[in-house]
Design brief:
- This protein has 2 domains: 110 residues, no CATH class; 65 residues, no CATH class.
- It is 25% helix and 25% strand.
- The strands form 3 sheets. A 4-stranded antiparallel sheet has the order 1-2-6-7. A 3-stranded antiparallel sheet has the order 3-5-4. The chain has a two-stranded antiparallel sheet with strand order 8-9.
- α5 packs antiparallel against α7.
- The radius of gyration is 19 Å and the shape is elongated.
- The two termini are 22 Å apart.
- Bound molecules: zinc ion.
- Zinc ion (ZN) binds next to loops.
Length: 198
């Protein structure tokens, strides 16, 4: 499950293995907004909550970006008070299921188990907490909810993906995981992850 379709769109938040304790942790993509004027750059560079980065577009042109990590600093509409003219806090607010913006895999990880908080460059699907290896291939799910649906879908008799909230994701589960034998083995492991018994 590494084709472009499964990559994009991805949910804005994912469940990953904590880089510190390997238990289940929350990953949230950072939001980036283009800095409009050159004179605004200093504001973002010196800010405690923003990170300034220079990006290059597909034509080779450079642009200046201000990154905000909601996973570390909270809702931008609550945290951000003073901004240069032309920006609003909602510029850094994500929609429920955001596409990876500008091909960035940057975000943050928060682990309630060990207290880890930090920026993180996502490696997917290697970072996925809900992942099961079968015949040298990796089956993964975005989070607890999609893992539960994947589990139920694999065990279902008719495999009607449209019945599920994560239908588009389930539709692309590779055939190797869908044989009866594979389904049983995988479902058991998924169940262990969902119930927190690894
Ligand atoms: Zn941890």
């Amino acid at each position: 499950m590494t084709g472009p379709y499964e990559w994009n769109p991805m949910p804005h938040q994912l469940e990953v293995k904590c880089p510190a304790c390997q238990e289940k942790a929350q990953f949230e993509f950072a939001e980036v907004q283009k800095i409009i004027l050159k004179e605004d750059i200093d504001f973002f560079k010196s800010s405690k909550v923003f990170e300034y980065r220079k990006f290059q577009d597909s034509c080779g042109h450079y642009w200046h970006g201000a990154l905000y990590y909601a996973g570390l600093h909270g809702d931008p509409e609550i945290t951000l008070h003073t901004l240069p003219k032309g920006y609003t806090p909602s510029d850094w607010k994500h929609s429920a299921y955001l596409y990876r913006s500008h091909g960035l895999d940057i975000g943050s990880v928060r682990c309630d188990r060990c207290g880890f908080r930090g920026k993180h460059s996502l490696q997917w699907p290697e970072d996925a907490y809900f992942s099961v290896a079968y015949k040298n291939q990796l089956l993964w799910a975005f989070n607890q909810e999609s893992a539960q649906e994947l589990h139920d879908y694999l065990l279902s008799f008719q495999r009607e993906h449209l019945k599920y909230k994560w239908a588009a994701f389930l539709l692309h589960v590779p055939t190797v995981f869908k044989t009866r034998k594979a389904s049983w083995t995988i479902s058991k492991q998924l169940c262990g992850l969902i119930e927190g018994k690894r």
